Amino acid sequence: MSVDSVFVHKMWNDHEISKMVKGGVPFPMLSDGGGKVGSIFGIYLEDAGVEARGRFIIDPDGVIQGFEVLTPPVGRNVMESIRQIQAFQHVRKTKGAEATPSGWKPGKPTLKPGPDLVGKVWEVWKTSMAFDD
Amino acid sequence: MAEEIKAGCARPTGGPVGEKPEAKKETAQQQIIKEVKNMVTVGKKAPDFTAPAYSKGKFINVQLSEYLGKWVVLCFYPGDFTFV
User: Fold this and answer.
1) A36 and A94 together in one domain
2) Residue whose C-alpha is closest to residue A104's, from A123, A118, A93, A90
3) Which of A47, A72, A105, A133 is most buried by a 10 A CB count?
4) What is the residue-level pLDDT of chain A in tens, covering all 133 positions?
5) Which of A32, A53, A75 lies at the terminal end of a domain, its last residue?
6) Looking at chain B from residue 24 to 83, which residues have their Cβ under 8 Å from any Cβ of chain A?
7) Does the beta-carbon distance from A72 to B73 stay under 8 Å?
8) Does pTM surpass 0.95?
9) Does residue A112 share a domain with residue A59?
10) Do A45 and A93 sit in the same domain of this protein?
11) Which residues contact B44 (CB under 8 A, 6 or more apart)?
């Protein structure tokens, strides 16, 4: 979503993005003239008249589980967004019984918060597990 | 003379030139409304909205609540053709 019109979205898709991504953009490119939607999400930059690079993860109940906002010159990390969605999906599947520690990705151990784990995280989780091998 | 603009990721914008118009005095109520305007909160419902969109060769209307039951990634960016 950006403040551009749907006509400009079409031109950008047809003349540039479709040359990078086979078949073009696979999801709807939303238009937010005047930044009305961006304003309610808190990422519309009034002085510049554009939207910041805001990314919101919204769960199946319509609840915002996470967001990240960057100023225009720095791009996002798609893999990190996917990792976060996988983590939120895992937590949801376990109905909150499991939590995903720092650096978690599918296959890595989760934590089961409860009275027995208080002060014992150091026994089951090492800081090296926060990083990729 | 027209000055050349350096291309960057934020769209160049203009504005009025010359003397600044006298700032209107805001009522206390307007100030309160301004302060209330802020970021959404994690763990809270995303505000619903509709927006026109371009999708696979068609112009469509999208409403966020139509996606209930699915995971949604909503991405904002400064503008088409802004490099990053």
Assistant:
1) no
2) A90
3) A72
4) 999 999 999 999 999 999 999 999 999 999 999 999 999 999 999 999 999 999 999 999 999 999 999 999 999 999 999 999 999 999 999 999 999 999 999 999 999 999 999 999 999 999 999 998 6
5) A75
6) 37-49, 51-56, 59-60, 62, 64-65, 67-82
7) no
8) no
9) no
10) no
11) A63, A64
Q: B56 phi and psi, to 5 degrees?
A: 45, 55
Residues A22 and A65 in one domain: yes
Query: Are residues A88 and A59 both part of a single domain?
Result: no
Same domain, A68 and A50: yes
In this prediction, the answer to ipTM > 0.90 reads yes
Q: How are beta strands A53-58 and B72-75 bridged, if at all?
A: antiparallel
Structure tokens at A61: 């109940």
The label of the residue with tokens 């047809």 reads A14
Q: How many domains does chain A have?
A: 2
Q: Is residue A1 in a domain? A: no
Enclosing H/E stretch for A10: helix A6-12
Q: Looking at the complex, report in whole angstroms how far the Cα of residue A95 sits from the nearest Cα belonging to chain B.
A: 15
